[in-house]
Amino acid sequence: MKRNFYLYLLLMALFSATLAKAQTSKISGLVQDLETKQPLAGASVVAKGNIAGTITNAAGNFEITTSSTTLIISLVGYDRQEVRINSNSFINISLKSSAEELDQVVISASRVEENILRSPVSIEKMDMRGVQQTPSANFYDGLVNMKSLDMVTSSLTYKQINTRGFNTTGNGRFLQLVDGVDNQPAGLGFAMGNLFGPHDIDVESVELIPGAASALYGPVAFNGMLYTRTKNPFEYQGLSVQTKFGVNHIGDGTDLGAKPMYDMAIRYAKSFNNRLAFKVNASYLKGTDWYANDYTDIDPNTPVENRGPNNPGKNSLNIYGDEVAQSLVGIGRVSRTGYEEKDLASYGVYSLKLNGALHYRITDKIEAIYQGNFNQGTAQYTGSNRFVINDFKLIQHRLELKGSNFYIRAYSNQELSTNSYNTRALGQQINRTWVQDLNGTTVTPDKADATWFTRYAAAFNGTISGVTGKDNNAARAFADRGRVLPGSQEFDAEKERLIKVRGLSGAGILSECKLEHIEGMYDFSSLLKIFNLQVGGNYRKYYLNTGGTLFDDKDKNLTNDEYGAFAQASKSLFKEHLKLTLSGRYDKNENFDGRFTPRASAVYSVGDHNFRASYQTGFRNPTISDQYIKLNVGPIIILGGAPSNALGQNAYENSFTSASVSAFGSAFGKEVQQGVPFPQAVANNKDKLVKSDVPYIKAEQVKSYEIGYKGLFGKKLLVDLNYYYSQYTDFIINTVVIRPNSNVLAADGSVNVAAAGDIPAGNIQAFQLYTNATDKVSIQGVSAGLTYSLPKSYRLNANATWASFNILDANPNNIPAFNTPEWKTNLVFSNPKVTENLGFSIAWHWQDSFDWYGSFTEMRPGKINAYNLLDAQISYKIPSLKTIVKLGAANLTNKYIVQAYGSPAVGGLYYVSLNFDQIFR
């Protein structure tokens, strides 16, 4: 059925293209600057209603054959112009220089082209000019200056973005598309920032939708969507080269000194007869990652006033191995000696991106595309642990057939992660390789921790000759005898060995997961005439392969299927003043019930003033990990919530709540100490046990209401105001249950005494289950933006965002952390043409403090202090060399800031770049 659907779309597209054929004529012309009368090279000339077009040559001339009566001429830095044409004519076109196009065209808000002023939902756009002029280290970092957007840094090569709350360092609630391709590795379940995305040199534009976009884009677009478009080789031809040299780690508080950063990129594109075109891209970035070196003692079992470097039980934030701790009789809490992250991680990071695309215009209205991407890189990721995403490869293939009113797209994402590892696990495992018993014999890793604490207790209690008793430092020194030290051959050998060992006895991570996706859309508007209608759908299949290290997929063909379909109808009324839009989407995953997500919006326009209101719903299916993880970590089994994954475990169906097991154990133990016989103590307290009622996992849900205004004053001032209110429910959570070997309930529905007896006998298994909370919470927020085009090409952009979280009556343990500052502001002042060749840009970002909750610190809060960032760049154009020299700084004042607790502090990055563009055009 799905295949027939896409075949139908293809046939309709071809039929539509056939109907559109008409008498063609050849048009030639000249495009020039309105003021200087200089010819404009590289201007796009497209026949309205077609996808085929051409670009002007070095002399500003073009030639196009078309049946259309209207040409659309555009060039970055100039106002877009539509020109009526006659057959076989020559036309002169003068484009007016624009400091900033305030009424840009966007596509992602409605999946069709529309003026950004009349978008039915809030949307932000960074065009190619913004990409070129950002003072940040790259376009992706520059997104932080968009209103509503939050950014957190885990690594020099990995930054994660989010909108409208519930932020994480691995955001499975936010969709990132590059040329329509979901940029997530299938096993990770979220996009790795721009580690596997396009380089600046090939980016044409970026559009941001804050808030749920599930009605058009499916379950991943729960919190919002980022859509990046790369340059079409028909429109952007020639050779472009960018070289960037930078330096970071200046004044970072270590004695390691400043570190260099290199970023080199090359792009070449060529068109043949305006029918066949290709492009190739290659880029390579290399640098030294930010150091995670916060050694704050965060041990939850030590009172705050007793924490610190002298705490024998300290658990330092970025030291690993010291999480292993025990309470020793007569001594107190003691932790093992850990290793600093810098000795375990790979701080030499890089990013390699290779890309090629072939475009063929079958007709003026149909274009076929093949694109292949190979990405490989290293980054640090802060999740439940600190992970080194090491030599991670993401291979993507995309096939697309598109026309002016349809597209069919198929793509695949294949991840290859064979050298990645868990830094915290690595520290713990190295600690288990060298421990000696009291006779001086090195013990096996499974006995190492217990033996170390035995050594410590013996030394502290004064039973070791030559070691001062009652001295924690002396006891630790004795317990650490034989410890392998960072920098030694032994340490390096164990580190290399354990990275290759996967599973609980090592630190290595294997993932060779893949996803395949096909989707299509057809725009029936030209056929219906009465109203606009778009219809589309998609099918996706996941293939899981972690070798049994994460999922229960060893020697198994573990897959997951999902599909969806959407329709959107819009109608303009009252002489185009009112535009009404209705959207609806149905999605089905093989493990969950189908779900319908509607969206309704209205935009009322009076001149350049536009008022909008919308109601939209969204949902997020559990990630692949949420569904299929099956990991036995010793005392507990982490079990994903898909029914097929839990089959045979009997954990959801036959278990006690962990709280009731604790209550039972306490009461039972007290009676046994008082001399009550074992069976009687069990029978007396069994009714304290409560059968768990944990449902299988399902999708999260959101309902959102939004009103806004966007308007132009005098073609110089753009005002954008937005208010939203959203309600969330069914958040995905974890809960711990205890499964006895016996049936939980007896035949009469009471607690089975045999199951109660299993608990003190140890015939139980603990499970961490994935499920949903029924609690409801709400958020509301306001964003405001002003863009002012000043005389002489100066422009000022200012925005502010306020977000408020209301937990209502919900249990805080059932709600993901909001992890979002209440206030944040941005101010950008720039001028690309202070003189004919000189330009600059300054960007200031500020956000207030908030508490960060993350799995890295077991959901205990860590303070993120208020901070501000100042980025700046100055550029100089050398026309004779077609080169722009750019001198800039990200975090100019070099204030070291932390954006997610447990992640590194980020300082200044100072750079100079040379951008050679349009060579050999």
From TrEMBL:
Signal peptide region: 1-22
Record-level Gene Ontology MF annotations: siderophore uptake transmembrane transporter activity
Pfam family, one: CarbopepD_reg_2
Entry keywords, A to Z: Cell outer membrane, Membrane, Receptor, Signal, TonB box, Transmembrane, Transmembrane beta strand, Transport
Domain TonB-dependent receptor-like beta-barrel, first and last residues per copy: 372-892
Localization of this protein: Cell outer membrane
Name used for this protein in its record: Outer membrane receptor proteins, mostly Fe transport
InterPro entries linked to this entry: Beta-barrel_TonB, Beta-barrel_TonB_sf, CarboxyPept-like_regulatory, Plug_dom, Plug_dom_sf, TonB-dep_rcpt-like
